[in-house]
Structure formats: structure tokens, C-alpha cells
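note to self — DONT lose this again. spent like an hour looking for the file last time. sequence + predicted structure for the chain T wanted, 591 res
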Amino acid sequence: MAASLRFHSLLSFALILAFSMPCQSAPQYGFTTELVHRDSSRSPYYNPADTPHQRVANAIRRSVSRADRLGQSSANAPSTPSGVIVSSNGEYLLNVSLGSPRVAIVGIADTGSDLIWTQCEPCDDCFKQASPLFNPRKSSTYKDISCSVSPCSTLSRTSCGGRGLCEYSYSYGDRSYTKGNLATETLTLGSTSGRPVSFPKVIFGCGHDNGGTFNDRTDGIIGLGGGSISLLTQLGTATGGKFSYCLVPYSSDRGSSSKLNFGANAVVAGRGVISTPLVQKDPKTFYFLTLEAVSVGKTRIEFTSDDPSDPVDEGNIIIDSGTTLTLLPQDFYTKIEDVLGKFVTLPPASDPSQILSLCYQAGADVGSSIPTITFHFKGADVELNAGNTFVRVADDIICLALAPGRTTIYGNLAQMNYLIGYDTQNNKLSFKPEPKTFYYLTLEAVSVGETRVEFPSAGPSLSEEEGNIIIDSGTTLTLLPQDFYSKIEAAMVKYMKLPRVSDPSQFISLCYKAVSDTGLGIPPVTFHFKGADVVLGPTNSFVRVAEDIICFVLNPGAMSIYGNLVQMDFLVGYDIQNMKLSFKPVDCTLH
């Protein structure tokens, strides 16, 4: 065992070095965090009583309402070039932490606004919030911004309050509002690696007077727009102005989540990548593209402007992850619907929610019945299949996910299963169809000794959790959902008799003092995959991180990953044709 533990410690050392990379090395630095859809089982908004079709209908209603507010904000652009906020809701949530020590914040990730803000103590008039309010007095890194510095003097909707401190007042299109002090604070983002990433002196709003349509399940808003105080702009120095995301389909809530990448992790390159210019327009909050035409099959429909001398307006469509549908001008949409009606031979139907115009009766597999729809952006032709262009609104009804709207928006259904990269320094947006690059297994439970801990299900049946963990030889630790991991850790603690200590790198959760490699009393850990129980011995479940410290190789993480330490001294075989993975305990030095 001694040789194995020494070997594993080298991997652990490499892992710690990888996560110690400083923010200043922007070209090489990158990280990835989790975006949680508001209807996901991981979301505080999740209502298990809603059917999948009810969730879709609710998302569509929010989409229409949000588009109206985006349109109002865009029309008012000249008077509010840098302080625009347009919507108090969005489709995705982002978990961040503020302050030192860290305080967890669940914020609405909003590409239609710029300001980062949360409710703060003391609160003069706040909406009800389930989690404690952020208390700036308890943070050693909080600092109010004075009226004399540029963040206050250059931003709209700010004023000089008492004690010479900068105050802000923002209102939303739905009459929600936030008022408070503009300040700087250390902001920490979770990472899919399991190690959080911190950024000092991030400008945010400490709200002391907030109200409107907010509810108690979120703590504020994380502005992801293109303005000067948005999170993405403020991280620009550390991330080279690059971010990307890949949105998983609504139908894929199986422990998977959408990802938001920064810096080196956000580079979109390789086969199949196409790019289009990001157009600089007011308001700076929005990300504008130029749409030239839309094709249904081989029938091309040109997108024309109101000015006959300029056939295509630059920056005529907004790309927005917070809007579900893709919204187009009425005349243009009508032409697309007419052409599509000639291609699709399915029986017509009506949208139960009476929002979407073009619907059909359709069973489970409709791919061959729906033509490819291509969005011809300037320099980039993005081909969309049925999963991007139609949405199931009932068991036997699908509807076109395009609709007429006053504001032209490329919504999130059209973006799903594409890796979409924003390069704000070079004003370029890239699309890459997301290949099926991961190998998914189904984990049913984990046993520590005789104690079995069931993997949590997001739905009423385990079948909804097929493919809930990735097996990956490139990840060292095994990462599991926080609640699930906590139960496993508690079971391990009951078995272990060694003195508990801290990981010197402050990364791994459960560690013990162990000078010797013998007599440790480590119980077997069994991963119960569907049809396969993989029993791990001490050399697979613990790693030596120091001469006298061993740590548990399972850890909480945003993604569920079966890492390489638990795979060591197993012959792991992949049969792609028969969709089967096999484990065989061996001495890998002999194979």
C-alpha cells in the first residue's frame, strides 16, 4: 500500500498546482462554473408538482414578458447608455459568494442587465428572502465607493448620498427596483473543478431598499450584460474578455447542468466552429448580431430592413440566454411560418397555452418530419435541428419555438447544444455544435462498509436519472452533489478512528492524520452502478497529501464525475458499439 499511496500523492500535488494558477496569467487562465436553469431540480424555483409541459409553458410566458421589457429598454437606449436594467427575471441562476468570510448568494443570471447586486443589512425596505441578508460589517473586504471616484461619476442612475458615499437607484421594466450603496467586494465563483475562484474589488450594489416582483428564493441579480459594471466586463482583465456557455436541453435534466466558461476555458476552436461579429450599439448591455436571412430547408427568406438603401441593418438581433423563444418581426416570421407549413406534413394542432402560433400533433420521434432551419448570421450559418426549433408543449403536441415579437431576439432554445463563445475584446461570437464528448454512467448508490447511500433522484423514477455521472480519466478526484457527498462523508466518519485533520491545500473535505500506511481501518467503498458494483479498497478511496496526512478522494462538486484515482488498478473497457463499460480489478503494472 505504501507504494500506491506515494504514487497517488504525486497526482494530488499536480492537482493542487493546477488550481493555484494566478488570475494575472490571463491567456492561460480559465475556469468553468455552473448555470442552473430555474426549472431544474437543482433550482430553488423547482416545483416537483409541475409537469414538464407546465414548465415549458411557464418559460414561454416569461419569454414573451421579458422580450417586451427588453424592447422598452432598447427604445430608451440614448438616455440610459450605461445604467440600463430591463428585467427582474431570467432563465438561469448563478451561485456566487460575496465577502470575507464568504456568504453564499443565489442570483438570477441576467444577460439583459449589468449591475451585480444583493440585499444588504441594514435593510430599510426589502423583499422577503429565505437566506440571511449580506452584512457588509462582517466582511473584511467590503468597501463603499465614494462619490469622487470614477465608477460613481461615470455611471448613470447614481447620486452622492450622506457621508460622501455613492448611491444607486435602478428600476426594472416590471416596476421592481433596487436602491443602495455602490461598493467593492471580493466575489467568489464556484468551479466545476470543485475549487472556487475569487476576484477582489468587484463593483456591486449593496441594496438597502428593494422590492417588486422578486421572491424569497433568490438574493439578487448577477448582471451578465456588456456594460462597464457587469460581471463579465469586470472579469475582463483576468479572463481576456472571453466567456462561453453550453446550454443543455430542457429534456436533459438528469444531473447535468449548463456550463459558463471563462478565459482559457472559454476558447471556442476546432472543427465546425463558425463566427460572426458582435456589433457595438447602444445600449451596451446587449449583445447584438447581424441576421441576414433564415432558410427553411433550401428556401431562403431574406431579413430586410426598413431602409431600402440598406438591405441589412448591422446589429439587428440580440442574442439572449434569458429569453426562451426566438422572436422575429411579424412580417418576417409570417414568411418563415408559411414556408415551414409547406414542408411539415404532420397533423396541425393548437398550443394549449394559446401563445405559440404553429403547432403539430407529434409522437416521440419527429426529427425526420422537421426540416433544418438555418439562421444566416453575417459570416456564420447556424443550422438548427428539430430539438432547437420545436418545443414539446404536451405529450402529443410540438410547437415552433419561433414567434413574432416587437424586439428581435435569438433565444436560448435555438442555442441549446451549441458551445457559444463571446470574445468581447475582438468583438466576435462563435458557434460550435456540441459533440457527445462525455461517457455517462448511471450511479444508483454508494456504500461505505455496510452503509448504503442512495443517489438522489430528480424525479419520481430512477429512469429519469439515467446517465447521472461522467466517467473521466482526466479528473483526479471523484466529484458528487453536495448533499449526496455529505451523507457519504458522515458514513465514513463513523467508521474511521484516526484523528481528523485539515487538508494542507484546503481543497479536500475529509482528511486524517496517518503516519503509517497500515492499520488505517478504512472500510471498503462500493459504487453501485446500474448492473455493476465496483468495490474500492483504501488505495482507491484515500490519497496521501502529506507525509502524515491522507484525504478522502471523494469531494463535493458541481458536476458528478467518477475520477481517475478510483479507476486505478482497474482494467476499464469501453464497448462503444454495444454501449457497455466493463471493470476488472487488476495490477495495472502488469497490463
